[in-house]
């Protein structure tokens, strides 16, 4: 499973990149706004800055919701860098835009996926990625991981090339569950990724190793 970071924060992107486990980045208008990015040129410049840090797929979302405007916006985004993936919402015009981009060699990420039916439509239109929103499905009392597993099963049976990008991930355990359920990619903020590092037995085991190493150093100094 690939790891994408879900943020527009350049420091967090650098930190995840420096861990050596980062395969790409996803952003959305809310995440861009959180970083204070306003206006078209500032937005395009920010995407370019992200592309300079990470050599992997970078999702950049269109803001409009009609076919012609989405195509126009997507072309501008895709022209920024070969790694840009145009993120398009799961609506009727979005589906048509995905087909258009696919036919013109532009990668897409179909966002706002909440059902297997929506994932099938996006795959049929040729989306590079579908983004089921696992956390938001959990929020309404349904099972987000089960949705990922259902889509993974359907895509395997049908032989779809579209990759499942598990989104709206809220915890380290969500990441592990997505890997088990067959997601090709998970995208989440830095914290759940860093959370995977932690285990109390690792912490107590390391404390003992460090203490014993100190004792060994003291003995070696005494003997020197
Ligand atoms: O429910 P949340 O935490 O706002 O997450 C929404 C998700 O939507 C996305 O836009 C999908 O890629 C991600 O940026 C994010 O994972």
Automatic annotation (TrEMBL):
<dbReference type="GO" id="GO:0016832">
    <property type="term" value="F:aldehyde-lyase activity"/>
</dbReference>
<dbReference type="InterPro" id="IPR033919">
    <property type="entry name" value="TSA/FSA_arc/bac"/>
</dbReference>
<keyword id="KW-0704">Schiff base</keyword>
<dbReference type="InterPro" id="IPR013785">
    <property type="entry name" value="Aldolase_TIM"/>
</dbReference>
<keyword id="KW-0963">Cytoplasm</keyword>
<dbReference type="GO" id="GO:0005975">
    <property type="term" value="P:carbohydrate metabolic process"/>
</dbReference>
<dbReference type="Pfam" id="PF00923">
    <property type="entry name" value="TAL_FSA"/>
</dbReference>
<dbReference type="GO" id="GO:0005737">
    <property type="term" value="C:cytoplasm"/>
</dbReference>
<dbReference type="InterPro" id="IPR001585">
    <property type="entry name" value="TAL/FSA"/>
</dbReference>
<dbReference type="InterPro" id="IPR004731">
    <property type="entry name" value="Transaldolase_3B/F6P_aldolase"/>
</dbReference>
<protein>
    <submittedName>
        <fullName>Fructose-6-phosphate aldolase</fullName>
    </submittedName>
</protein>
<dbReference type="InterPro" id="IPR018225">
    <property type="entry name" value="Transaldolase_AS"/>
</dbReference>
<dbReference type="GO" id="GO:0042182">
    <property type="term" value="P:ketone catabolic process"/>
</dbReference>
